[in-house]
Amino acid sequence: MLDKFWEAAGEKLADRWASTSVPAIIFWLGGLLCWISSHGGASDLRKLAGWAARQSAPVQLVILITALLGVAASGVIVQRLAVVGLRLIEGYWPPLAGRLSRWRTGRIAAKAENLEGKFQDLAGPVLESKSATAAQRAEFTEIDQQLRRIPADGDYLPTKTGNILRAGERRPAEKYGLDAVVVWPRLWLLLPADTRSELSQARSALDSAVASLIWGLLFIGFTVLAWWALPVAVVVVLAMYLYWIPDRAGVFADLLESAFDIHRSLLYRSQRWPLPENPRDEHASGEQITSYLMRGLDGATPTFTSDTGDS
Question: What is the pTM of this model?
Fold first, then answer.
């Protein structure tokens, strides 16, 4: 996985502060509502506000700074936990969960096999004889999209999000022979600024969705103050895990693949590597340049070109 790379390739400080502090403010405001509902409602809140108003200016400043620092610190902590949380959501589980992981990957393998069988059955009327009905074409498109979200090599992870990201990372190797884990840090440095911005925003959106799930889990703690905190937390966690995080993972995976589709020639030119002449040669050349970048190569082939890609 490229998690460490994306952790290092963060946004600007102000943007990162906003992305971590806003969810923290919402969380603590929710906690305040729970406290109000369990301590006499708005009257106790007015008492608390009145007490703060009677304090001297320095004390009020200390209270304000302490509150802001507490919110910011909690936001940073949760954002850091999001890195670990994403790994768990992807399905990189500890050995203790090995049996559950094998059960889940077995179910995903069975689903993939079933989808592949339906895809092959529909491929004839849709792609060859052109005799498919509108319903068959719609089903074919839907199955094709589902298969794109599953690793084609059968190396499955036990979660939907994990398979979406793994499929996106491995597709450049399937199409072009380029191993994304090895090649991506080099290609990233060559990408146009707008492309890097789109990718960074997509990754930030994915991390923020994971952080929102963590905030939802933490909100369960306010159940001791207000019973309604539990259903709110459950709704947030399920929405993030089942829909929001997989959706954001799909956007990021598509952009990652698109970066290879459009800009992979920059990698060849930067290494003075001859451009492939056809798809068959490109796959072999991609595997070769991956090995070259990973550990270097000996020998007289290929012959470097004079084009450095600067023009």
Answer: 0.85
